[in-house]
Write a structure and sequence with these properties.
This is No apical meristem-associated C-terminal domain-containing protein. It comes from Phytophthora nicotianae (Potato buckeye rot agent). Residues 186-207 are annotated as: Disordered. The chain is an all-alpha fold and 207 residues long. The protein has a domain at 19-41 and 50-104 and 122-187. Helices cover 83% and strands 0% of the residues. It has four helices and no strands. The protein has helices at residues 2-7, 19-42, 52-108, 122-206. Helix 3 packs antiparallel against helix 4. The radius of gyration is 37 Å and the shape is elongated.
Length: 207
């Protein structure tokens, strides 16, 4: 789908691009920018140009990392879910059988002539327990979603602050460089003025 859209863009010359080659190129760009980020972090304080392309790659890298973490977390949660469901299912069945046996014992001990209650089956007890389990899972899911939302927002804020910090460092370095240039020009102009004064003085003496 991405390759097809790229081919329709005006001015895009690589009409032979495929989905596989587009993905490979994207992976190369992400890997290179990841190395660039590492090098930039190690060279803190060095003036670097921060343009729209770098900002776009920063945003893409963040999205890729978030997607990867989300997939890893989803896979781990799925495995935990299956294991918990298997364990819970066995526990519910065992508990239902035990409760049914207790009710049977109480029913057998009742006196004759009393109308027995409706027969409760293991399925009835399991259905009741499953309903409670669904409510607990629904509440747990809401809490997990809220935690994930807060974590994602926190990461976005951290990334934004880091980007703004880098831009501020670059601005400060540029300002320092401009100041040094101005000082150099002033020094050069002062030396030139002194030279002219000396020259004028010598001419006056000759007069």
């Amino acid at each position: 789908a991405v390759a097809t859209k790229l081919k329709t863009l005006e001015g895009f010359s690589k009409t032979e691009i495929t989905g596989k080659s587009a993905q490979a190129r994207f992976n190369v760009l992400i890997d290179r920018h990841r190395e660039y980020d590492k090098a930039s972090a190690a060279a803190l304080g060095v003036s670097e140009e921060y343009d729209e392309t770098i900002q776009l790659l920063d945003d893409l890298l963040l999205e890729v990392d978030e997607y990867t973490r989300a997939e890893e977390q989803r896979s781990a949660e799925q495995k935990e879910k299956f294991a918990a469901e298997e364990k819970t299912g066995k526990s519910i069945r065992d508990e239902a059988v035990a409760r049914l046996q207790k009710r049977k014992v109480r029913s057998d001990g009742e006196q004759n002539g009393v109308t027995p209650p409706r027969k409760v089956t293991v399925i009835d007890l399991m259905r009741e327990d499953n309903e409670k389990e669904r409510e607990m899972r629904a509440e747990q899911w809401k809490q997990e979603q809220e935690m994930m939302r807060q974590q994602k927002q926190s990461e976005l804020n951290d990334r934004k602050e880091e980007r703004e910090f880098r831009m501020r460092i670059a601005e400060l370095e540029n300002e320092r460089f401009k100041t040094l240039l101005q000082l150099a020009k002033m020094k050069s102009g002062g030396e030139a003025s002194s030279s002219n004064i000396c020259s004028d003085g010598l001419d006056g003496d000759n007069f």
